[in-house]
Each structure stands twice: as C-alpha cells, then as structure tokens.
Amino acid sequence: MTATRGFGIDIGGSGIKGALVDLEKGALIGDRFRIDTPRPATPDAVADVVAQIVAHFGWDGPVGITLPAVVKKGVAHTAANIDPSWIGTDADALFAKRLDRHEDDIAMLNDADAAGMAEIRYGDPAARKGVTTLLTFGTGIGSALFQHGTLMPNTEFGHVEVDGHDAEKKAAASVKDNEGLSYPQWAKRVNRYLSVLENLIWPDLFIVGGGVSKKAEKWVPLLEIRTPVLAASLQNNAGIVGAALAAAEGLEH
C-alpha cells in the first residue's frame, strides 16, 4: 500500500523546519513547525531540535531529513553552514537513535536534492524533460541536477568559482540581506553566477528556490541568460516535501 502521508524535516543554516506532507498532492498538511538552528549546529544539538519537531507532531512513522551537506549512504561528507563536526557523521545512525527508529525508517539526503525531487515530482512538467538544474538561494546556494527527471545526487554548484570567489559568497540570498542589496543589485550577481553555470553544464531549465523564490517577480524577470528560469512551485517548502517523499519511498543516496 502506498503511503499518502509522510513527514519531512529540512535542516538549514538559520532554521530547522518540519511538517506533515500530503504525498499525493505534494503539499504540507497544516502548518510547518520551525525552530532556530542551534549555535553551534553540532550533530547532537541538531538531533535534539529534530526530536522536538517530531514530538510536536506526534509522528511515529518514517522520517525524511535534509542536511546542507553531501550525504552518501546516510553519512555527511561536507558541512555547509552547520558545524564542521558533521563531516564523517553517520547521520542515519544518529537520528535513528535519537528518534528511536530503525535506520531503514530514516532517509538522509542533501537539502537541495530533496527540494529538487519535490519539484520534479509535483512541479512544472517541463522540469521532467532534458537537463534541469534546481538552485536554492538561502544561507548558501544549494543545487540539484536532473536528467529526464533522474537525480544526479550531491552536486555542489553553489561552490563554483565566479570571478575569483565561491559563488554563494556573492550570490546567496543571505548576502543580499547582509549587504543591504536591492533586488536589481542582487539579480546582477545571480545573473553572473547563472551565466557561468550555464556555460559549464548547458541545462535546459533552471528552477530557483529557497525563501527568496516567494518574491520571484522582483528579480527573476531581471535575469538575462539564455536558459529559461522558473520559480520553484513549492517555494521554501520543497525541502520538507522532498524529504517526506524520500522517507516514504525509501530513497537515499
């Protein structure tokens, strides 16, 4: 029997968010619950917050969890905007123990990969054809790459070098806020980044997500690149939905 409800948690650099998910519609059931990411964001501190969120909903089924990290077979291999002690951590085992679940009931995946999976499943059908790249603009820049709807996991396109800088250091949404940039000023930086990226991977479509996608009309029309750009249909909930989908269908990389 196919699950119709799932549960996802999206761990970010500034907040940890969880919600029940309608897996048929790709939509949240009720409100999401958010707690600020602890400082420092060590594995144990983050696991405590995740346990709080699961308890808040009284959820006892499989749990999908995203990390801003390269995740292979449940182990974190990088740590972007979370504590470096995540590197080498068996996140599957950590959360299984903290949530009193079997490891098979925990699905760990990269945050942008989760968001991309949700967009491919529930978003614009154009995303399922050719090469699609989803980029999440938040504390950093996450990326997910798809070929005809199949994920190539753990791309790190937010760290492509652009004009001598790590791309996310100049074009993440957090930089816009920290430097007080207007949307047109920030859009110029995003445009430069996307023009470099499109010359590397030649995608057929960019999907832009993260919290800033809620204001897509203020900056996406200002982009002047050859590749079509769509705002993420699930906006900043895509990571939660993708995590829940991964847990329900046993998808992990």
Automatic annotation (TrEMBL):
Q: Which Pfam families match?
A: ROK (PF00480)
SUPFAM superfamilies (alphabetical): Actin-like ATPase domain (SSF53067)
Which domain of life does the UniProt lineage start with? Bacteria
| Sequence intervals crossing the membrane | none
NCBIfam families, alphabetized: PolPhglucPhase (NF045942)
Question: Which family does the record claim for this protein?
Answer: Belongs to the ROK (NagC/XylR) family.
Q: What is this protein called?
A: Polyphosphate glucokinase
Gene for this chain: ppgK
